[in-house]
Amino acid sequence: MSTRIAFLKGHGTENDFVIIPDPENVIDLPPAAVTTLCDRRAGIGGDGLLHVVRSAAHPEAQGMAAEAEWFMDYRNGDGSIAEMCGNGVRVFVRYLQHAGHVTEGDIAVATRGGVKTVHLAKDGDITVGMGKAILPEGDVTVSVGERSWPARNVNMGNPHAVAFVDDLAHAGNLFTPPSFSPASAYPDGVNAEFVADRGPRHVALRVHERGAGETRSCGTGACAVAVAAARRDGADPAVTGTPATYTVDVPGGRLVITVRPDGEIEMTGPAVIVAEGEIDADWWAASRR
Ligand SMILES: N[C@@H](CCC[C@H](N)C(=O)O)C(=O)O
């Protein structure tokens, strides 16, 4: 492996990522390397890492290579692997555009949550076909400090627990993860969204992400929230036959989510490349000892 490793930094509604372009999948990225790169003091800093690999070169994506040239090998900032990242997939495609790998149009991206179609315009916001949500049955309670709320399970490829609250401040500082009852509800961990109403079809959320802590946004989380809100509001498109569009404010900006009668979900939001550079070879070598 060459010691010259390129990186970029990007964000989507301030959910920020270290981007490591590695088309042929030759860079060794064990969890410790990911945590070091995502460290905000000793590394580059990010909620997660987007490892950009050709699908044909990655064992987890070879089966999707005929449909999607590129695989988003997404890692959480703590080094763990997640199935999907909604903000990440927009930033991933913004990177592909920046690098000249794709131009405007519909871009298929392989993820662990399946192939996603991303609509890319020359500039402006990016729309992603996020697929359908699964709503596992089961009563779950989420607690922060002295407060508890019922939570709705929504799986967007990755797991979410959505709780409607009167005031986002009631979720506390979220320095520690919320707790769940039953404690066995999420054996693989969960992303927890706390949601407050802002107006008709307009909500705001805070999120505690599995593998990252509180972040400024979560794209899959915003989709999970729109699905849960539509059910709560009697606007479930599967029942009404009419699409439901929700504006979801996150601490880092705004996402717009549309749920269609067939269950397909579209997410629209920004994606920004902030910087690019080269990782210092000595730092990289020392950080891996
Ligand atoms: N921020 C992401 C979600 C990233 C993965 C999540 N932390 C998990 O472990 O499932 C998004 O924008 O969807």
Automatic annotation (TrEMBL):
It comes from Streptomyces dengpaensis. This is Diaminopimelate epimerase. Its EC number is 5.1.1.7. The gene is dapF. Substrate binds at N15, N76, G86, N87, N158, N191, E209, R210, G219, T220. It is found in: Cytoplasm. HAMAP family: DAP_epimerase. It is an enzyme of class 5 (isomerase). Catalyzes the stereoinversion of LL-2,6-diaminopimelate (L,L-DAP) to meso-diaminopimelate (meso-DAP), a precursor of L-lysine and an essential component of the bacterial peptidoglycan. The lineage of its organism: Bacteria, Bacillati, Actinomycetota, Actinomycetes, Kitasatosporales.
